[in-house]
Design a protein that fits this description.
By secondary structure, this protein is an alpha/beta fold. 50% of the residues lie in helices and 17% in strands. The longest helix is centred in the C-terminal third of the chain and has 34 residues, at 272-305.
Length: 325
Amino acid sequence: QTQSGQQSKAGTGLGLHLSNQFVRRLGGTLNVHSERSKGSVFAFAMPVEVVQVTPKSSTTRHVTGLATAPPKPAPKILIADDKHQNRKLLGTLLSQVGFDVQEAENGQVALELWRAWSPDLIWMDIRMPVLDGTRAMQYIKDEATQQNKRVRIIALTASVFQEDEADILAAGFDGFVRKPFREQQIFDVMAEHLNVQYSYDDTPQHPTLTRGLSPQLSVPYLASLSEDVRSALEQASQAADIATLNQLVSDIKQDQPALAIALGNLVDDFEYDQLLDLLSQVRQYQADQHTAAAHQSLAEDVVETSFPLEVTPSPNEAGSTQAAS
């Protein structure tokens, strides 16, 4: 807010306006009931429908590479996103299966790289500095048409509204994927637009595990890992280093398969924040365990070194004893 807004005793009403817009976009209505000196009650209603939850397949297919016969040059993929971590995440995912990947931190750099490198497909973030994703896409499409070239440009967007999806496609994008995305979404879109095929590693899942926080991912279970392994997991999660995370999960699987599958589920879903939070809880858990053990050891030492006290009677008490005898 501006200084005048911060000093105001009343709100600006912007939050209510935004709430009304959200409700309307979802097909609902926002109503208010007010009474002087008592207050206001805001309520909304919107249409919903019950959906059937389809159980997930017991087998997760992990893409391990490109299946091309005869061998062809790897498709060239450009990733345009102003967030370094987002570029690294998607770039690592694609390069490790065989795509030729380059990165651009804004729309202007993406335009220059397209002119110099001619990528087959561009992942384009919508909101970027210097030149936003939509204008960069339009410049690239115009130049590609003039040069009789074809390029596929897929929008990356954080929007959840149907109206925005229609606007994205109407602007000229070949498709879109919402953030945060899943690995399989990325590969499916690229298979559709580049006509590529993949080789897979079919890994059967433990029947009792789900995508939620399973018992194997509780803090005590993670604490059973060595400090070196936990430290490596933490560093790889902070760097969004998919290759290292997958290797660590593979190593853990040899001794603790259930824990490895649960960790693998988090890595596959890019739930790095949840993994980092759990690893942080492990440190606190171990500190609490160490403190409790220290207190227990101290208590045992006190018991072992204690001895009965010898009480010496005072002179008055001694005299009274002698008189009584």
